[in-house]
């Protein structure tokens, strides 16, 4: 069953709460990448065109309420006011910013909205109850709106007050709940990776830690024909095979998991054949290509090597679905970016292949190389896309939304 969509509702005169994911990266108080705001615009523009009264909710950064001094600093740093300015530019209309998450100021501003107006509420994480999924907070916010729309794909794996208690409270009060265009697009693309009906299905997994990705590796073992492993996580698998890993990043407590994967995925888990090694990640003074799968004892493996690039390119030939998470090397340094760039080029040159990236760092690597538009889908939610695969298509923030009638 499909979820109810924003365009299936009567919207005119209605106060619509839209949970968007406007959690953009900030550098010295300025937005360094506005992609998430851009991606939120189609649903907001639709609501404006239908004369709804739009109230946008989002979190920004982290606020650790258990430490009041730190929380005050983080609240100052993660003030959504700067996002309101950019949102207004992108929508081409005024966005009223309310620096409160509850109370008279917010309530009056909502009451003052006219059809087609847009208001952005302060960072939802200013509220202690947001991350605690507080029912009180969700019920309060629900009392301020007529309709709830979730378009915050990057936050759908978290059951927080703005993604879970709030739509729950709306449903209890017989107020409609729906998903927006971004969530719809993400579900449509990621469902193909979850359903795994097209084959060969090749997964590419990299990044720093196996422990972050155990569940998704287990999920992919059930769906994909092959999993190509790279990044630092490869060394935990190498350790499981008894290879020399030198000073590479290894998670010793995950070696047993890696052994089990290698047994369960016999012949389907592909590991690097060689590496680019260096004496240090932060200040490399000496690099070398390894001759085989062993890393020199005084060096670290920081990227996959040229034989691996060729091997993985061959393994990708003919793929109908590719799901990629995690860079294959420490790509932030151009010395260790070849593996990531090479796999990226191999994927975008595949014919008739549905290619998906789920992962913040992988997505930023691909954007840096100018290849984003050549992927079928670049997910806006790293964690959410992985959890969707792990949980067979289920995420709390989506499950809670009512089905289409
Ligand atoms: P994503 O955000 O795409 O899910 P991760 O966050 O799991 O990816 O991992 C990205 C990080 O992994 C990058 O910062 C990259 O430098 C690091 N990384 C990849 N390969 C290595 C390696 N061999 N050694 C150290 N760090 C690595
Ligand atoms: Mg990351």
How does this model look, in words?
- It is a single chain.
- Strands 5-6-4-1-7-8 form a 6-stranded parallel beta sheet, sandwiched between helices. The chain has a 6-stranded parallel beta sheet with strand order 11-10-9-15-16-17, with helices on both faces. A 3-stranded antiparallel beta sheet has the order 13-12-14.
- Strand 7, helix 7 (161-172) and strand 8 (177-179) form a beta-alpha-beta unit.
- With 405 residues, it is of the alpha/beta class.
- The mean pLDDT is 97.
- The protein has 2 domains: 6-179, Phosphoglycerate kinase, N-terminal domain (Rossmann fold), CATH 3.40.50.1260; 186-390, Phosphoglycerate kinase, N-terminal domain (Rossmann fold, 3-Layer(aba) Sandwich).
- Helix 1 (35-49) packs across helix 3 (81-91), helix 10 crosses helix 11 (255-264) and helix 12 (306-316) packs parallel to helix 13 (338-348).
- It has 16 helices and 17 strands.
- It binds adenosine-5'-diphosphate (ADP) and magnesium ion.
- Adenosine-5'-diphosphate binds at residues 206-208, 212, 231-232, 249, 281, 301-302, 325-327, 329-332, 359-362, 382.
